[in-house]
Amino acid sequence: MKILLQIGVVFGLYWVSLLIEALLPIPFPASVISLLLLLLLLFLKVLKVEHIREKADFLLNNLGFFFVPVSVSIMNYVDVLRTCAVPFLVICAVSTVVTFAATVGAVRLTCRLMDRRKGAEK
Amino acid sequence: MSALFETPYFGIAVTIAAYWVGVKVQKKTGLVICNNMLITVGLLIILLKMFRISYDAYYAGGGVINMLLGPATTCMAVSIYAKRDLLKRYWAPVLAGCLAGAVASIASVLVMCRLFGLDWAILMSLLPKSVTTPIATAVAESHGGIVPITVAAVIVTGMLGNILAPILIRVFRVKDPMAAGLGIGACSHAMGTAKAIEIGETEGAMSGLAIGMCGIITAVLALFFDLLV
Question: What is the pTM of this model?
């Protein structure tokens, strides 16, 4: 019953998010809405992590698995991609590296500024 | 006979079997290129092609697995919540990192599309490619992008992030797990996050956080995409 209840809580939350998604005037995905909603409920202590721990662990530990069916769908797009395969792959690869570097760089810079300010206060 | 492939049981069982092989091979070899996602997806595509099973037939079961993707994303809130103390102390770097990541992704795609001389529709299909699928497709669709290309770009980017994450951490000498996690989430959404969770707890939580933040930032920036003409 414990696991069943946990599944109910997570699915219920997701359903409410689908409802919010349908009501919102701008396109915003239910998955991100439900992430924010659950985070809010945890911070407000309406829900406790214990209420969903096993279910969350199961889903998060196998996260890659849930992406497999969508990824297999790439076999349907081979024809579309053939028209611009080289630029497509180059763009995907380069921007992945650039984005990673920019994020890490910004985090490092901000952390350094914080340390310096802390040092100045002392 | 072919009707048997259209039952959900086939799609679910074959996906679990392929994933099991993928995880085993990665564990055994420990090589970055033997990425579990890459092996699983490759194996399934070869199998479906070999036995002439359509994607739609496979998706009878695949769809059931796909249904859990949303709830799985939801549960990232649990790992983010577990790191709330870190978040309270470092909210500024987190925000700065996600903002920089979202802008860098859009800017790099824009520059390269111009270099390759690609048209507007392709540009709009590729611009939102670093964020989670639902946001990316919504953004592409509302600006005249071609949705299948967006889906493909999001998947390829996610796969690349999942494969490259350990290499990127080494090449850029990222010692701070917070920075590593944010970087992975910003450049390759939840598929990268799946790898980040394997790397470490903080990496996983921060990567999950970056998906949400970069998604929101990109959705907001997308409102100005039409000014790029």
Answer: 0.85
